[in-house]
Amino acid sequence: MPATSINRTEKTVTTADGAVYPYDKLILGTGGKAIVPLIHGASLDGVFTIRTSDNAVSIRDWINEKKVKKAVVYGAGAIGLEMASLIAQKGIAVTIVVRSYIGRKLGLDMDVSSELEKHFIRNGVSIRSKEVVTKIIGETEVEAVELSSGDKIETDMVILSIGVHPRIELAAAAGLEIGEYGLEVNEYLQTSDPDIYAGGDMIEYEHLITKKPIPGQIRPNAVIAGRIAAKNALGYQIEFPGLLNSFAIKLFSKTVASIGVTEAIAEEEGIDVFATTKTVKTKYAMIEGGKPYSLKLIFDRKTKRVVGSQIIADDEHSIKSIDVIAIAIRCKLTALDLTTLRCASQPELSPEASAEPISMGAEDAFKELYSLT
């Protein structure tokens, strides 16, 4: 039963059936909702958002019932790219329309994004970068979309994947303070009312590196925030760690991961960085079947600390190295620290110990950042 109002004076929550529940401490987790652009035709049949399992079922049923041959995906964040990949593998001609470039919202720089774009094109997906959908055309069902360039693309369906709005209506009506990206909370996930906590897609997070507010609408953030909010509501005082927005995704046969700041974000924030990329195989050279993957590391020149990483791989396991970088960033490890990283090594399970990409990338950074003169 959905909650309809919060009375902070009486410390009660009222639900849609009229029931009233008292509280000592309250935790809000109202989530987010898919953004639907205010454009002509957005309500036509065959236009979908993808936020819930019901949305996914509706998309599947539409594809099967309408025998869809062409699809447009508007937006190139994680969900948009995953949907484009999955639909294309069903033999459907997919066009991705993206305002900037694919992967920007995932925390990818242009060098990694360009590899990803080539991968999509090789798999038959068309990409219209630096475009927006200005109109969805059709009588009752979608027939085409019109782009900002004036071009029209015929399509049997449109998937809108341009972001998520935090569900903050209940919190706002209760008079809680709202930030740029969601409900404001402190380091303990308390709202402006110390007896009300919040987490998940509805709140505004603080970036660990830039210290600026950002949205954090991915599952791990919600899981960790839920645990901490619950503990603190019980009386603990546990700080929520600054956000890094790590993610991983599978697109056709490649996997991609990212964490921390990109070179582009660093430039925007005035952080002088040095980046290095290493490409290795997943097995020793003497073992057949090794697959390539590239790992990019980004270091702050001033502090010499690692502040970001991006991985693109032809296997499903190498991207978990992003979790090593997550710990390294959180623990403020430097290039020198990472040169002595000891990773488990076995011929069939890992690159050569002498080619391990984190330590070897750190060696490149060491040469650049630690001068004897």
Architecture overview:
This is Coenzyme A disulfide reductase. Residues 3-207 form the FAD/NAD(P)-binding domain. It comes from Candidatus Argoarchaeum ethanivorans. The strands form seven sheets. The chain has a five-stranded parallel sheet, with helices on one face. A five-stranded antiparallel sheet has the order 18-19-22-21-20, with helices on both faces. A three-stranded antiparallel sheet has the order 1-2-3. It has helices at residues 53-66, 78-88, 110-122, 169-173, 219-233, 263-269, 321-330, 335-339, 357-369; strands spanning 3-7, 12-15, 20-22, 26-28, 32-34, 47-49, 70-74, 93-98, 126-129, 133-138, 142-147, 152-154, 157-160, 164-166, 196-198, 205-206, 213-214, 247-251, 254-260, 273-281, 292-300, 306-313. Strand 16 and strand 17 (213-214) form a beta hairpin. The protein starts with a strand and ends with a helix. The chain is globular, with a radius of gyration of 23 Å. The chain has two domains: 24-244, FAD/NAD(P)-binding domain (3-Layer(bba) Sandwich); 253-369, FAD/NAD-linked reductase, C-terminal dimerisation domain (Enolase-like, domain 1, 2-Layer Sandwich). The longest helix has 15 residues, at 219-233. 25% of the residues lie in helices and 28% in strands. By secondary structure, the chain is α/β, with parallel strands linked by helices.
